[in-house]
Design goal:
400 residues; alpha/beta; 8-stranded parallel beta sheet; two-stranded antiparallel sheet; 14 helices; 12 strands; binds flavin mononucleotide
Length: 400
């Protein structure tokens, strides 16, 4: 990052990303669905939970490190997989380098713009994410490739239902950027000379292909070609997910769980971890914020598997709240995307430093020496805050 590139909050990173990125790219990161209610609730719910700080007894040394699926990390924060197409020429490799520099785990989407081999070389602590798309044979090949590249865990993301409409309008994204589309999109891109310049310097044009979904000997499909295949693939059963876990054979994280009954089924088929997730508010709108459903899921299965959370994390204090409510770690999506848009690799490092600083302040103020000591006793949880989905119980664990 250049001089004065440093930003103090993720909100500032987002403002800068909005200024630097072409509108279509910015809007693709905002994402969301329908009215954007879940998108908002993911953020708002974190502000409804308060802290109960201690006045004396603060600890001079504080340990923020933990392990996720057996992999050590300096922070209980994992890079959530996103297809960061066209945000930055180095894309996921820049994110992986930033995560490696801060000793944080990198989650790589199979829809990403960079091959898993390059990303895992930049950050050996890489988890590889897949959707249920294509034939079992193709999925096996993709898993084998990720394993050979050194991926330490598989993330299976299954909470997607192809809902696309947004009340505020969806961005128009070209299938491939060639001269013709460059001319078509020029009026939208030209007011963003810095973004264009970053790509011009790199000698590359944004590459909307998915190299990790290439079949052996074939070409990398375009993003929308891959999306089409996914839409046409019959959705998986629990037996299919079990097959996927067995085929992978290593640590396996099921991402997208919100219901207690699903969490229990996931335990039954032998997953190592789940992420309580609503896909960052991009799946079914009006699904409650993940922080509201976390306590019920953590209570049901937290003693058997690792429970993670993603959705709405923008501050270190959000990380502290999620851990206090039963998460082992969180995954972040837009927070690092805004950093990437605002300042490339340095911007992502800046975001991780913001989260570290905020988490450290929370642990200090709450009188703890380790993130493992965080508990509901550190929080003020308003009545009716939590939601229990997919369980016959009437009482929520924290609303009594
Ligand atoms: C632009 C964008 C692309 C995403 N792409 C993927 C993806 O390819 N695979 C996946 O598992 N999740 C994907 N997600 C969901 C994120 O991994 C994560 O669940 C979500 O962003 C968390 O919410 P947050 O952005 O509020 O942190 C995407 C999210 C965004 C915003």
């Amino acid at each position: 990052m250049g001089r004065n590139a440093w930003f103090e909050t993720v909100a500032e990173a987002q403002r800068r990303a909005k200024k630097y990125l072409p509108r279509t790219v910015y809007d693709a990161l905002v994402a969301g669905s329908e009215r954007g209610r879940t998108l908002e609730d993911n953020l708002d719910a974190f502000t409804e939970v308060g802290f109960a700080p201690r006045v004396v007894g603060h600890q001079a040394q504080r340990d923020l490190s933990t392990t996720v699926l057996g992999v050590e990390t300096a922070l209980p924060v994992v890079i959530s997989p996103t297809g960061v197409q066209a945000v930055h020429p180095d894309g996921e490799v820049a994110v992986a380098r930033a995560a490696a520099n801060r000793d944080v785990i990198m989650g790589l989407s199979s829809f990403a713009s960079k091959p898993v081999e390059e990303v895992a070389a930049a950050n050996p602590k890489t988890f590889y994410q897949m959707y249920w798309t294509g034939t079992r044979e193709a999925m096996s090949q993709r898993m084998e490739r990720a394993r050979a590249a050194g991926a330490k865990a598989l993330i299976a993301t299954l909470d997607w239902s192809f809902s696309h409409g947004r009340d505020w309008g969806s961005p128009e994204i070209p299938d491939r950027i060639d001269l013709k589309t460059a001319v078509k999109f020029a009026p939208k891109v030209l007011p963003h000379p810095r973004w264009l310049w970053t790509f011009a310097k790199s000698g590359r044009i944004p590459d909307l292909t998915t190299p990790n979904l290439r079949s052996p000997g074939g070409e990398a499909p375009t993003f929308f070609g891959a999306y089409g295949e996914w839409m046409q693939t019959p959705p998986p059963t629990w037996d299919d997910v079990k097959w996927m876990r067995e085929e992978w054979g290593g640590p396996f994280l099921l991402k997208g769980v919100t219901r207690v009954d699903d969490a229990k089924r996931a335990v039954d088929i032998g997953v190592s971890a789940i992420s309580v997730s609503n896909h960052g508010g991009n799946n079914l709108d009006t699904t409650p914020a993940t922080i509201r459903v976390l306590p019920s899921v953590a209570e049901a299965v937290g003693d058997q598997i690792e429970v993670l959370l993603d959705g709405g994390v923008r501050r270190g204090s959000d990380v502290a709240k999620a851990l206090a409510l039963g998460a082992r770690a969180v995954l972040i999506g837009r927070a690092y995307l805004w950093g990437l848009g605002a300042g490339g690799q340095g911007g992502v490092e800046n975001v991780l430093d913001i989260l570290r600083g905020g988490l450290d302040s929370a642990v200090l103020g709450l009188g703890h020496s380790s993130v493992h000591e965080l508990s509901p006793d550190d929080l003020v949880i308003p009545g009716g805050f939590t939601r229990t989905l997919g369980a016959t119980r009437t009482a929520d664990p924290l609303s009594t």
